[in-house]
Design brief:
This protein is α+β, with helices and mostly antiparallel strands. The chain is built from three helices and seven strands. It comes from Occultella aeris.
Length: 161
């Protein structure tokens, strides 16, 4: 296990569509251990594999004392009801912007034994699930901001780079 450095905006790996995991081997087991260890720090809610430089479909979460992971996650259900709130990202450090997400989300995938996993939740957990699946699809939360907010956000991002 290793606590891994977080890739930040501008790194091309964050815009890469992550590949499905087809073989659960020692490399994938080490990746999960690194994801879990790296997300298990104060102020961290979720972490996608590409945020630590690995273009495989896996993420971990750390919410309300629960730390977990899922491989090959697919967002299979979201509510029509939405939630508004400030959203941030380890790959866009120090910046938070208002973002609208579904109030409920459900992700399906597998664990390290290949067994089916379902992760679902409302509120911050729903936001986290959507945010991390977006990462694995090569998207940042900035892409989902309303136009005026996004324009301001990108200006602030450029100032930090």
């Amino acid at each position: 296990m290793a606590f891994r450095d977080i890739r930040t905006i501008g790194d091309p790996v964050l815009r890469t569509l992550c590949e499905e995991i087809t073989n659960i081997d020692d490399r994938v087991r080490a990746l999960v251990a690194d994801l879990v260890e790296t997300v298990d720090a104060e102020g961290r809610a979720g972490l996608a594999a590409n945020q630590i430089g690995v273009s495989l479909r896996a993420f971990s979460w750390n919410l309300d004392g629960e730390v977990g992971y899922v491989l090959n996650p697919r967002l299979v259900e979201v509510s029509e009801e939405t939630q508004d709130g400030d959203e941030g990202c380890l790959s866009v450090p120090g910046l938070w912007f208002p973002a609208r997400r579904a109030a409920y989300a459900k992700v399906e995938g597998i664990d390290l034994d290949g067994a089916p996993v379902t992760v679902e939740g409302e509120g911050i957990k729903a936001r986290c699930l959507q945010h991390e699946v977006d990462h694995l699809d090569g998207k940042l939360y900035l892409d989902r901001l309303d136009r005026d907010v996004r324009k301001s956000a990108m200006r602030k991002v450029r100032e930090l780079m």
